Amino acid sequence: MIEYYSQSYGCPSCKEGLGDTEKPVIVKSQVPAALVGKGPASASAVAWTMYQKYANGLPLYRQEKDWKQYGAQISRTTLANWIIYCSQNYFQPMYDYFHRELLKREFAMADETRVQVLNEEGRRAQTQSFMWLFRSGEDGLPAIILYGYSPTRSGSHAKEFLEGYHGYLETDDYQGYNNLPGIRRCSCWAHIRRYFIDAVPKGKQYDYSQPAVQGVQYCNRLFAIEDSINQKYPGDFEKRKQLRLEKEKPVLEAFWS
After folding, report:
1. Could you give the 3-state DSSP secondary structure of residue 187?
2. Is 123 within 8 Å of 105 (Cβ atoms)?
3. Are 148 and 134 in contact (CB under 8 A)?
4. Each residue of 23-43: pLDDT tens digit?
5. What is the DSSP track for 27-87?
6. CA-to-CA distance for 56 and 68, rounded, in angstroms?
7. What is the number of other CB atoms lying within 10 angstroms of the CB of residue 83?
């Protein structure tokens, strides 16, 4: 960018003065630091590449063709390197920070689901791996949701991830969460209800003499009370706790007896 600066020694309004001069001066704007090495990748270009691949399921070889249509020759190898570099240098520190913050919370939830990974070294494509989900609870603070990959469903992965956590943990009935030190484990009533439904004899869903049907009814009663409380006091955690002790505790006591 070229700007012209006027240097005058006389009257500025009539431009009559001694030694009026105009000198062109090149002003160079500040260039932000490169996102990836010394390459041309911008934050928006890399974010778009990641969004297309992981949110829209658009493979890199198709993105490579898109860039070519826009007039940019960017290979899929370069796109992959963008993702790898930014994941390691930008996302990993942020992930680690939220991981530390999650371990400070008093309540958390966890679950795991099967995922298939292709071309994983030393493993067949048909081998099942697992993606773990860890989430903070409803404590009035911003939600923290983190995913973690492991090649197996061993409880050692949950133990490693939650090392240093000493709060309540809500999960399903998977036994891999049983041996986590310093953690008070909570069960999910939605999962418990499924087992009662599976145990109801065929055609007996309205036979209230059946223990399994009674179990379903207790769970339904808890859910109805919980929905009512949440609708009336969505952000008042102390009030919700008070009403749970007042209205839900008798249902739980009856259930266990």
Report:
1. strand
2. no
3. yes
4. 788 888 887 788 888 777 889
5. -PPPPPPPSSTTS---HHHHHHHHIIIIIS---HHHHHHHHHHTT----HHHHHHHHHHHI
6. 19
7. 17
Three-class secondary structure of residue 148 per DSSP: strand
Pairing label, strands 107-116, 128-136: antiparallel
Q: Coil, strand, or helix at residue 160?
A: helix
Q: Retrieve residue 38's tokens.
A: 């010394």
Q: Note the pTM of the prediction, 2 decimals.
A: 0.74
3-9 long-range contacts, CB within 8 A, separation 24+: 3/27
Residues 6+ apart with CB under 8 A from 49: 60, 63, 79, 82, 83
For 171-180, how does the pLDDT look when each residue is reduced to its tens digit (9 = 90+)? 998 989 988 9
Residue in this structure with the two tokens 């986590």, named with its chain if needed: 180
Cite the DSSP H helix spans in the chain.
Answer: 43-50, 60-69, 76-86, 92-102, 155-161, 189-199, 211-232, 237-243, 249-256
Place of tokens 């679950």: 111
- Are 118 and 126 spatial neighbours (Cβ–Cβ below 8 Å)? no
